[in-house]
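Cont'd.
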Amino acid sequence: MAGAKLADVALEAGVHVGTVSRALNPATRSRVNAETAARIIEVAQRLGYEVNITGRALRTQRTQTVGALIPDLTNPLFPRIVRGVEDSLEKAGYTALITNTDNDAQRERRMIAALTSRQVDGFLIASARLDDQALKEITEEGVPVVVINRTSADARASAVIADDSQGIADVMAHLVALGHERIAHLAGPGDTSTGQARLKAFEAALDRYGLQHRSELVVRAEAYTIAAGTRCLRELLKRGNPFTAVVAGNDLLALGALDALKENRIPCPERVSVVGFNDIDFAERLSPALTTVRVPKYELGARGAELLLDMIYSGREISTVTLPVTLMIRDSTAPPPLPGTGLFGL
Amino acid sequence: MAGAKLADVALEAGVHVGTVSRALNPATRSRVNAETAARIIEVAQRLGYEVNITGRALRTQRTQTVGALIPDLTNPLFPRIVRGVEDSLEKAGYTALITNTDNDAQRERRMIAALTSRQVDGFLIASARLDDQALKEITEEGVPVVVINRTSADARASAVIADDSQGIADVMAHLVALGHERIAHLAGPGDTSTGQARLKAFEAALDRYGLQHRSELVVRAEAYTIAAGTRCLRELLKRGNPFTAVVAGNDLLALGALDALKENRIPCPERVSVVGFNDIDFAERLSPALTTVRVPKYELGARGAELLLDMIYSGREISTVTLPVTLMIRDSTAPPPLPGTGLFGL
DNA sequence: CTGTTAGCGCGTTCAT
DNA sequence: ATGAACGCGCTAACAG
C-alpha cells in the first residue's frame, strides 16, 4: 500500500505523529530514541509512506521546487542546460518547474505568476531580455534568483555565464589568422546581455587587429532564430559592402546566414566563412560543419542550480561565475578568396 | 505589495476570509452579494492577491500540476512535444513538472516518487519502455495517466500515438518505387512500443511487396541514440549481406547509420539509401538531408495534455488517439545502384 | 525522549 | 448573504 501518511504510520507504530515526523527526518532523528526510530522507519517503509511535500511546504514555506524560465526549449542549447539543472537539483531533493517564455514579456509575466503561485523557492532564469521588470520585482520580494547564460543589471541576482568575450576573441583570432579583413557581425538582439557582450568583443577585436570599423558590416538580429539570421544576411548582401566572413551572434543565426548564402549561391566557406556561437547539438553534422564556440551547457545549468540552492539554504551572497569556452574549428571557415577570384561584392 | 493572502484581503475589505474565498472563485461568486464581491475583487487586485496553490492543494487535493516523464529532452523530438503539452496545460491553469528519465527504470522510479510526493494531479509519460512496472503502480492507485508516442499494455492509461504502421508503409512504398529490394531495418529497442510497431510494419510491407524476409538484414538497437545507430550499421556491414536501403527506427538511429556509412566510405544515397522516423528539427539541414516520416510532435503533446485534463476533471474514460504522419522525401534516398556498378557486398 | 498543541493558506460545511 | 469553525498533512515550539 502506497500513499500512507504520518498519521497512518503513527497509528501502526503506536506513537504520536510528531514522533514519526522527527524519526523520519534525518535532521531531527537524533532527538528520538534509536529503537523507536528504527521501528518507525520500518513501519513507514512497510506502509509505503511518502512525504506529502504540499503539506510540508505549507508549514515550512519550502516547496523544494524551483521555477526555470527558458526562452525556447527547441533551441538545442537549452535542453543541455536543463539536464545540468535537473541533476544538481535532484541531489538536493529539488525539482524544477520548466516553462518556455519565448522571450516574450507577457508570457514571462504569466509564467512567473504561475510559478510564484506555486510557491517556488527560487528562480532560474535563462531568458535573455535585459530590461527585465518582472525579474526586478521578484528579486525585490527577496526570492532567490540565478540568471543563466546572461548577466543581470540587478545586483540581487547571481549569474552563471559563458566567457563571451573570450569566445569572440578566439573567433576573431582564428579568422584573422586565416587572412580575413572584412568581417561582418550578425549581432544578437540588443536587449540581451549576450548580444551586447559579443558585439562589444567583436569591436574590441577589430581594434586589436587594426581592422576598420564598418557600421555597414554589423546587422542586429531581432531574435536568436534561424529566420532572423536569414533576414540579417540578406540585409548585409543588399547593402553591397563586401565581406569574407560572418561572425554570427549564435548558432541559429549562423544557420540562417548559411541559408541566405545558399539561396544566393555564395559557397561557404569558399567565398564566405561563417562562425556561430554555443555549439549546439548537430552543429558538426550540418553541411558545412559549423565552426563555432562551444559553451559548457551542462555546467552552465549545473552551476546555476547549485548557486540557487546555496542562496535558498544559506542565503549565500550574490556572485557571478564565468565558465570558459572552446573554439571548435570545423568546415565553415577557410581562408578568404584571393582578390580578383570572385570575392563577393568586389 | 504582492503576496497578499486571503486574510489580508478580508481584513482590508472588512469581511470574513470565507467570503473572500467565495468572491474570488468564479464558481462560487454567485453565492455572494454582487457589490461586496466587486469590492473584494477590487481590494484583492489592489493588494496584489495571488492564490497560494500549495494551500489550496492541501484542501482540494488538486495541485494543478502534472508530472511529465520525458526520456531525453536533448532528443529534438521532445521539446516540440513539450511545447504542445505546455500550451494545452496553460489554458487550464496547469503547469508541468518535467523530468528526464533516460529510459532508465531506476531513474524513472525516482522521478515518479518525486512527482507523487508533490501530489501531481496526473502523469504524461513519453518514456518508451513497455514493461513498465512503475506505470502500472500509479495507474493502479487511480492517478490519471496519458502515455505519449507509445502505447501501453495497461488499459487504465490513455494514449496519443503517431501512426507508426502508416509511416513505415509509406517509407516502404517509396523505397520499392525507387527499385529497392534488399532493404535493411535498424529496429528500435524491443521493449518499446514504437520499436515493435515499426518492425511489425516493416515485415508486413516485405510481405505486401513479395520481398524475402532476411533476418540478417534486421538489427535491433539497444537504445534510440546516434551511437546505437552506428553500432547497428557496423554490425549489418559485418554480416556481409548486401542491402541497398536502410529503414531506421528513428532519426537518431538514422544519423548513426549515416556516420557508419561515412566511416566506411559508402556514399548515401548513391549506394545506400537511409530513412529515419520523426523528422526532428535539423533533419533537413543534414548532409544528405534526411528522408524521414514527420510525426505531428506539437499535436502529440497538446492532445496528450488535453486527454489528461479530461481525465482529471471529468474522469473521462480511457482512449487512444492516433495522429497521421507524413513522409518527407529528401536527399538520403535514391534508386539503388545498378547491378554490377558497385553494389555493396556484391 | 515523547506527547500536545498550534498553525501554515485555503475551501467548505454548518449555522445564522 | 455571510460568519464561524474545521481540517487537508506536516513541522515546530512547548511541556512534561
